[in-house]
Amino acid sequence: MHGSPSRYQLAEIGSLLADPSRAAILLALADDRARPAGELARLAGIAPSTASAHLGRLVEGGLLQVLNQGRHRYFQVAGDHVSAMLEVLPLLRPARSRPPGPTAAERPLAFARTCYRHLAGYLGVALYRQLREQGWIELGDQAVRLSEHGCNALRAYDLLPDGAQPPGPPGRSCLDWTERRFHLGGPLGVAITDQLLQRDWLRRHERTRALVLTSPGRAGLRQMGIPLDD
Q: Which Pfam families does this entry report, sorted A to Z (predicted)?
């Protein structure tokens, strides 16, 4: 879609997000995993027939896409732009003098989660801050780039794909809705997050976007100088 959005396009997107069941479906898919309709119905707490109707509207509205695997159909967000929208929308709420802390159910997501395919939450913000303070990344006008020093340092921690050379894949600053500060997004953020998962420093939660920090991950991130609460 090119050019500025019209009022009708904005209203259409708003109507798609206005239903709590559709919002639950979108949030369940915000980690870029593809899920079948039955699983999404269970996660949203609705009947399969109701989920089917909601999924049809979300696909028609361009927020979801369908992946066909033989006789099975899976649903996935239509791209990084959709997950970025879901991540930043809560920031539009009116600011409060004392924002409430996360509930018990929200704490795992607030600590570490996927935003599309990159690391978000407290851990994502802390990692981004450390990368900047150590000079391991450089902020340009259009993108975040690895420095040569950063490439060597991250390679030493085995947090870059094999063969990665500076400036490496481009990254971008992504505003975090729970921390209200930036974490690292874009292909560079995805590449580092993939390595954190492959190294078993982080593990995916089965039913949510939350990421679980493992004992090796806690030790490794502390070694990198990232502060962690016990």
A: HTH_20
Q: Are residues 120 and 56 in the same domain?
A: no
- Residues 199-230 pLDDT 10s: 999 999 877 889 999 999 999 999 999 988 65
| pTM score | 0.70
Domain shared by 175 and 128, yes or no: yes
Angle at CA 194, nearest 5°, toward 192 and 197?
Answer: 110
| Cβ neighbours around 4 below 10 Å, total | 6
- Number of CB atoms found within 10 A of residue 77's CB: 23
200 and 121, same structural domain?
yes
How far apart are the C-alpha atoms of 204 and 200, rounded to whole Å? 10
Cα dist from 173 to 62, 125, 155, 163, 170, whole Å? 24, 10, 21, 24, 11
Crossing angle of helices 20-28 and 48-60, in 10° steps, is 80
pLDDT in tens, 45-91: 999 999 999 999 999 999 999 999 888 899 998 887 887 788 777 76
Q: What angle do CA 163, 142, 189 make, to 5 degrees?
A: 45
Please give the tally of structural domains in the chain. Answer: 2
